[in-house]
Design a protein that fits this description.
The structure is a homotetramer.
Chain A: E1 6-11, H1 28-43, H2 47-52, E2 55-66, E3 75-85, E4 89-98, E5 104-116, H3 126-129
Antiparallel strand pairs in A: 1-3, 2-5, 3-4, 4-5
């Protein structure tokens, strides 16, 4: 059965907050990376293996909308799923919520491009494409 | 005369690149922050002063499109201007190019929201609004 | 029974490695922060609570020795314990090993200073001191 | 004439401070990297060129002592010099001061190890050694 979405949890560390006491906006992008890495692992192939096959999936577009701030020592749930897939690109979507209250914090999307190790666009190999099944936005 | 745009230069440090030898995608967001901070300084008010007046300008939306990668030790020109302004928000736009070759690397936009120190939306004060004149996209 | 040490696990993310494919040296300091935060939580008081009591524990000295590099997607075990404690300071020690092979990666120490919210040195409160029992270096 | 020391200036960005409003302690390590990179450039060889010759200089030991905090938007002078050099390692020392007041903020040292691209210890090549003249601690 294809994966519909995965969840990871991030605990906000002191290094991630700014003087407003909330997570600095660019740091959420790292949690998105952690989440899509776990997505691939749970789908059946690690990103490390994908690179060893001769491919990169690089971020071509990033969008983040900040609804509410996460604060120091909060636990944040990062939900990640595949929104769209084509022969040379895949779009991951993300919804970050407070792991205790469920309040929506951030919604985000990354469009990933398939490149070979010379950084040229290339088709996602079939065995990887098979793991990347688009799913409806989860609840 | 209102400011049409400002330029800052960032030199790519080893801490900013990943194993592909290129800048990790989220780090460009820090350079955007440096750029809009310098925009305000050159327009006539530092962000530190703006906070001391009781205001925050926080990122409500971030979009980045990655055209070409910046590599270790490259110098990157970050051009920043105001694209749009309203009573409670301002949109900064950015274009990052290789400082030597002029090649386009990243285009980006941040929509900033005006908040008071209780994190409630509030009008941008008139003396700040006066500094934030929208400009056509520069060459 | 006082805590002798705690263990946390960090998975190396793409954002943490440099073009040698190994963790950039300063990022280990963040894992040390995560580890001593978990130490306090397991000892019985979160660092957030300690700040709410009016105290900061800030890093006065940091030393790190790099034995072997951690690589992308590796899992790293961070062992943390209290090496020494006095009325106004506490020294945490750390040993980072590959979570699978046990190979030593980094040894580190942070001397933390107790400050009040005006950043003046101050005695660690007794209820916190009671949680910070020095332990012999663990195996 | 051999280089005795170099100075670089870092302006504290919002991304570098924590909720105490001061620079998060690990971020100074990045400024040390910027400083020694500029040292090499001014001495006559970029670190990029050194890597292209088949060498890495990696951090084997890092020590930082935090005297006073740098705050948001402050300018920090990073002074860097070679304290000691041997056939397979070089020690850089650093003193960070407030660029306006001259107040000492951080003193630091990094012992760098010469490795080949298989990560084995190797002699620093003579043309690089010639650039790395130890100097007395500058004023």
């Amino acid at each position: 059965m294809p994966l519909t979405h995965i969840d990871t949890i991030a605990r906000v560390n002191y290094s991630e907050i700014d003087k407003m006491g909330v997570v600095y906006h660019s740091r959420y992008a790292v949690w998105l990376d952690v989440a899509r890495t776990e997505y691939l692992r749970q789908a059946g192939m690690t990103y490390r293996e994908l690179e060893e096959l001769g491919f990169f999936l690089v971020v071509g577009d990033l969008t983040m909308r900040y609804h509410r701030p996460a604060r120091y020592d909060d636990e944040v749930r990062v939900r990640c799923w595949v929104r769209d897939v084509a022969s040379r690109r895949v779009t991951f979507a993300y919804r970050l919520t407070d792991a205790v209250t469920g309040v929506l914090l951030v919604s985000a999307e990354t469009r990933m491009l398939s490149l070979n190790h010379q950084f040229h666009p290339t088709r996602i190999p079939p065995e990887v494409l098979a793991l990347l099944q688009p799913a409806a936005d989860p609840a």
